[in-house]
Amino acid sequence: MGLLIDKYGRELTYLRLSVTDRCNFRCYYCMPEEGMKFVHRSHLLSFDEMYQLASLFCSLGISKIRITGGEPFVRTGIIPFLRKLSQLPGLDEITITSNGTLQQRHIQALREMGISKINISLDSLDPDRFFHITRRDSFATVMSGIHDLMDAGFDVKLNCVVAENKNIEDILPFVALTKDYPLAVRFLEEMPFNGQETFTGAQWTYREIYEHISSAHPEIEKLPSEASSTSVNYKIPGYKGSFGIIPSFSRTFCGTCNRIRLSATGELRTCLYGPPVTNLKDVLRAGANVETLTQEILAAVANRAKDGFAAEAGNTVSLHESMSVLGG
After folding, report:
1. Which residue in 76, 19, 82 sits closest to 45, CA to CA?
2. Confidence bin at 165 (pLDDT 50/70/90)
3. Helix axes 78-85, 47-59, angle to 10 degrees
4. Is residue 153 part of a domain?
5. Could you give the number of structural domains in the chain?
6. C-alpha angle with apex 22: 79 to 77, nearest 5 degrees?
7. Contact 324, 22 (CB under 8 A)
8. d(CA 223, CA 73)
9. What is the 3-state secondary structure (H, E, C) of the chain?
10. What is the extent of the structural domain holding 259?
11. CATH number at residue 104
12. Distance between CA atoms of 220 and 242, rounded to whole angstroms?
């Protein structure tokens, strides 16, 4: 057992590591279309600093790292970093979340280093709706990339944020997509991290999403899930793939959460809805040794909130910060 155990007995084994706040999309639920102020590159963790911190986290019990952003593949040097990261002792799995536009030329390199799971953020199967959501005309590129990943043997998940007047028409087509392809589609409730003060709550909760799907597919079967899974997973009998629903705003999975987040600027969060509890970049650049860094991390975990609602109640920072800034 690792050392990252909070006062509620939850062991943290999963680090979400953001490598950049930049992205080549402008999805409405993540950042404003214009006026996004990205941090100066000198304020980002260097890849050497990320590796040093990732190594420390693994020594404390982290066994899985998800690479997030922004869009991870926009940062120059990402592949050499991933190659080095993949050799870390104690690290069993590296996964990546991407928007699906830039990974195609890296497929062989990713396979060679043992990375085989990629989540693609895709909120519509209609090119026009895709454009309105992402503010980019890249639908064909993303779909081509998804098929290339599947052809190369990757385990591909599609993450779809569900929102009224945006993509409700896409829910059932996404489920239909799992008939012929071994995809895992994940429907997420909308969250407030959009970079602007316009969020009033998720209109489509996990209950509405489930009812919408079950009304068209009463034969759906619930699948077993790991205790730490954020999604409740289902399958249509006879379909190759599956789908799941993530109550990201309702926060029903907090009791078994095993995650910790490190932003590209070094901010450490023990809950997405809570404030940063420390900045490991600042601590590192102040000359801290491994023991000091370890104590910072252990103290953060020890004071972890019971759930996302308690974390939000103690958060004096705006919940409307861009998800690209918070770190995926």
Report:
1. 19
2. confident
3. 20
4. yes
5. 1
6. 20
7. yes
8. 32
9. CCCCECCCCCECCEEEEECCCCCCCCCCCCCCCCCCCCCCHHHCCCHHHHHHHHHHHHHCCCCEEEEECCCHHHCCCHHHHHHHHCCCCCCCEEEEEECCCCCHHHHHHHHHCCCCEEEEECCCCCHHHHHHHHCCCCHHHHHHHHHHHHHCCCEEEEEEEECCCCCHHHHHHHHHHCCCCCCEEEEEECCCCECCCCCCCCCCCHHHHHHHHHHHCCCCEECCCCCCCCCEEEECCCCCCEEEEECCCCCCCHHHCCEEEECCCCEEECCCCCCCCEEHHHHHHCCCCHHHHHHHHHHHHHCCCCCHHHHHHCCCCCCCCEHHHHCC
10. 14-326
11. 3.20.20.70
12. 10
Listed residue (91, 101, 92) closest to 69, CA to CA: 101
CA dihedral 137, 138, 144, 147 (to 10 degrees): -120
Q: For residue 311, tell me if it sits in a domain.
A: yes
CA atoms within a 13 Å half-sphere pointing along the CA-CB vector of 160: 32
Give whole-number Cα distances, 137 to 24, 129, 130, 134, in Å: 11, 10, 8, 8
Residue 92 maps to a domain:
yes
List, for residues 294-326, the tens digit of each pLDDT value: 999 999 999 999 999 999 888 876 665 656 566
pLDDT digits (tens, 9 = 90+) for 9-47: 999 999 999 999 999 999 988 877 776 778 888 999 999
Cβ partners under 8 Å of residue 218, min gap 6:
none
Does the pLDDT of residue 197 top 60, yes or no? no
Q: Which pair of structure tokens corresponds to residue 266?
A: 């070094």
> Does 217 fall in a domain?
yes
In this prediction the pTM is 0.93
Token pair 């999604």 is at which residue? Answer: 231
